[in-house]
Backbone:
């Protein structure tokens, strides 16, 4: 199977764009206050910052997964096993996160929030019950996507590191950028593990709320730079363009 320069560079652009969507997911919530009650929660659907973030949330996993596909493709020859399993982790993460947000857009935003202002007492009680189920389902999907993201980052990091090490030996030149990509993927895995701990009944680790914006957007941009540069390497292997 061959992958063209255009494929890698398209995925590189997607990775850089995912750095901006990550920033949006982090900072847009600061433009609206935490909701104190159910009425305020239902009214949040009209807030422009919330609406913008909700669409970014839906698009974001597709951008990140596109970059993950390219990373796995780049590593498939020298680390096919780790690359394949890592990509499977990212696929499960992306599908779960996109599904989670599609559920929010259709059930919460389009249906319950639209019905809430004019609903009578019986209808509001029904919406409350549906929201309770939605919240539990959302939390379950959040747990699943954290586990999948952890696995995907660990294994893609292994694939990139193994590929970089083998190619450094073959060419007698260091693959420093590739090793930084592996470190960035493992750092994302470590941060995900810290976020996962409370979901598994463990302690909440302070500091994750400021570590994430300092590391993740930069890591996604760095992956984009690496994929752009590595596009020509694929063409040297296969003669593709």
Residues:
């Amino acid at each position: 199977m061959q992958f063209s320069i255009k494929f890698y560079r398209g995925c590189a652009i997607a990775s850089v764009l995912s750095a901006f969507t990550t920033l949006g997911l982090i900072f847009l919530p600061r433009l609206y206050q935490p909701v104190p009650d159910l009425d305020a929660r239902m009214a949040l659907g009209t807030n422009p910052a919330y609406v913008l973030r909700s669409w970014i949330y839906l698009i974001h996993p597709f951008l990140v997964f596109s970059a993950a596909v390219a990373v796995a493709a780049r590593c498939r020859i020298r680390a096919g096993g780790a690359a394949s399993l890592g990509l499977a982790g990212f696929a499960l993460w992306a599908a779960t996160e996109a599904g989670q947000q599609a559920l929010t857009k259709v059930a919460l935003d389009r249906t319950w929030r639209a019905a809430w202002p004019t609903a009578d007492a019986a209808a509001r009680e029904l919406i409350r019950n549906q929201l309770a189920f939605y919240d539990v389902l959302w939390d379950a999907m959040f747990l699943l996507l954290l586990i999948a993201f952890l696995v995907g980052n660990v294994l893609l990091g292994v694939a990139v590191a193994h590929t970089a090490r083998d190619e450094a030996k073959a060419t007698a030149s260091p693959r420093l950028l590739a090793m930084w990509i592996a470190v960035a993927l493992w750092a994302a895995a470590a941060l995900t593990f810290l976020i996962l701990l409370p979901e598994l009944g463990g302690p909440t680790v302070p500091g994750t709320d400021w570590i994430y914006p300092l590391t993740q957007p930069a890591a996604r941009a760095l992956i984009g730079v690496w994929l752009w540069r590595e596009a020509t390497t694929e063409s040297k292997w296969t003669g593709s363009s």
